[in-house]
Amino acid sequence: MKLFYRHFGDGQPVIILHGIFGISDNWVTIGRKIAEKFSVYILDLRNHGQSPHSDTFNYVAMMDDLNEFIEEHQLEDPIIIGHSMGGKVAMYFALEYPEMVNSLLVVDISMRKYPPRQGHVQMIEAMQSVDFSKVQSREDVEEQLEDKIQSRPIRLFVMKNLVRVGQSEFKWRLNLKAIYENIDNIFEGVEHFNRFVKPALFVRGGQSDYIQDSDMDKIYRHFPAAELETIPHASHWVHAEAPDDLCAIISDFTGKTCKFRPGK
Fold it and tell me: Reading across the β-sheet that carries 226-231, which strands appear in turn?
């Protein structure tokens, strides 16, 4: 599957993988900062953003998509950064193809299987409930979502997936049906027999429960060079809430100071 991507900068390749309901646009601010020193590729994973839709939605398929992307663009020795669902794709890929990866940075996700998160299901159901026949503007969509998604920042995050069709019609760009029907696959744990012995950094939000201390034993078994960093004031959405802190951590991890250059 040919994935949509955004590209910034030159140098050693860095690949960024978003989480569920995310799109490449969510990572542009950080991507541009990293592009001060790297050639940054921010992907839309399958069923998200501008990438193709498919009824198949699991980590094996997304790992294969990533492999195809790297081979097509002839990327050598990439650093792979993944958040949440994208972090699990990154872990799977590093374990399956360790020789192809320079280093790994996983943002707020562990290897374990997670119980169903009702918030994710409610988010999908809220999006499915929007009656686009009554929508003429983004504000109309937000009004329909208000009762079901009470947090405005989360509503705005969800509404990043809106796309205009014609002058005044809208639709969801992501494949809600496939995501809804395969949501259990996304909560599955990372199970693999390999180890990735190169540098790996796990970054967690201090207000999030996605990476717990008890998760680290399994992480160290498969990623023996792994380190753990915590951003105390961030929740699961680390890149949105603490972009400067995350960029500083990336700079330390890569050994290159990355600063935002306007217009880059």
Answer: 5-8, 39-43, 13-17, 79-83, 103-107, 200-205, 226-231
Residue type, 172: W
Q: Is the pLDDT of residue 25 over 90?
A: yes
Tell which residue, 153, 130, 154, 158, has the closest CA to residue 143. 130
Structure tokens at 153: 């920042």
Residue 51's identity, in one-letter code, is S
Percentage of the chain exceeding pLDDT 70: 97
* pTM metric for this prediction: 0.93
Q: Are 58 and 185 in contact (CB under 8 A)?
A: yes
- Give, as one character, the DSSP assignment of residue 44: P
For 16, the 3-state DSSP assignment is: strand
Every domain of the chain and the residues it spans: 5-115+191-254, 118-181
Domain spanning 5-115+191-254, CATH architecture: 3-Layer(aba) Sandwich (3.40)
Task: Please give the structure tokens belonging to residue 201.
Answer: 């950094």
Here the tokens at position 222 are 């498969």
Task: Dump pLDDT digits (tens) for 129-163.
Answer: 999 999 999 999 999 999 998 888 788 888 999 99
The residues, ordered by sequence, that sit 6+ positions from 206 with a Cβ below 8 Å of its Cβ are: 230, 231, 232, 233, 234
For residue 256, name the pLDDT band (cuts at 50, 70, 90): confident
Q: Which residue has the tokens 């809208």?
A: 170
